[in-house]
Design goal:
about 55% helix, two-stranded antiparallel sheet, alpha/beta, Rossmann fold, 2 domains, single chain
């Protein structure tokens, strides 16, 4: 695990809030009563982030940043870039995770509609496996969707590098515009990354969701929604970091 990943895990909920609550509770035990109140607020925030309302609002806030596409632009696009997400360990070796598979499904539908060649990007490796995420994606595209992958970009460690390395590869093929396929909540960071390297893309978001409408079930905490809130908070943190770093 990289130092950046460790820092992200320590700062963002749930671990970040849990650690803060623990420290504040210790301060309260030593006589600082206000620290106890803040610790209680941190725990309430933790519970709040586990609700469908909070995770849905965070997701909608990200997806609302994606500009409306003017419409299919098959004439301008020369390729389909599929950004990898997760890689999982199985009994038979590395395999694509559920997030990556959802992106691949959207890309497969787009490829069948447009006929454009596929580029997969992702350099994640499992500690005991030599195959990169991009290589596993290429295998799965052929085995599960019957689609060949023309370009494999196996070096990118994050979204910025997904954009930089994919753009360089396609420019070498004299392609100056492509579709970029990822989750709708990940598109703001992906589009910013492509914009910073000067490579125009048409966004294709997988599974854009409806915003929560405030029904009673939206306020019942669930562990899966705490995990979703973590993903969306990480996207906001990454988006802010990429904007601060610039091109």
């Amino acid at each position: 695990m990289s130092s950046r990943a460790i820092l992200t895990a320590l700062l963002l909920p749930p671990l970040g809030l849990a650690l803060a609550a623990l420290v504040l509770a210790l301060m309260a035990w030593r006589g600082r009563r206000r620290a106890g109140l803040v610790a209680a607020l941190a725990l309430v925030a933790q519970i709040g982030l586990a609700t469908p309302f909070a995770s849905g609002w965070l997701r909608a806030s990200l997806e609302g940043l994606v500009p409306d596409a003017a419409g299919p632009d098959d004439a301008a696009a020369g390729a389909i870039i599929v950004l990898g997400a997760d890689l999982v360990r199985t009994a038979t070796g590395a395999d694509v995770g559920p997030l990556t598979l959802e992106r691949m499904r959207a890309a497969a539908a787009l490829q069948r509609r447009t006929g454009l060649p596929l580029l997969v990007t992702g350099g994640t490796r499992l500690p005991d496996d030599q195959a990169t995420l991009a290589e596993v994606m290429a295998h799965r595209f052929a085995a599960d969707f019957g689609l060949p992958v023309r370009w494999i970009e196996p070096h990118a460690r994050n979204t910025r590098e997904n954009a930089r390395f994919s753009a360089a590869l396609l420019r070498g093929e004299e392609i100056g515009h492509a579709y970029a396929v990822t989750h709708a909540w990940h598109l703001p960071r992906a589009l910013l990354s492509f914009r910073q390297v000067g490579f125009p893309v048409t966004p294709v978001g997988e599974r854009q969701a409806l915003a929560p409408d405030g029904r009673a079930s939206d306020f019942v905490p669930r562990p899966d929604h705490l995990a979703r809130s973590w993903f969306y908070l990480r996207e906001w943190a990454g988006l802010a970091f990429y904007a601060w770093r610039g091109g």
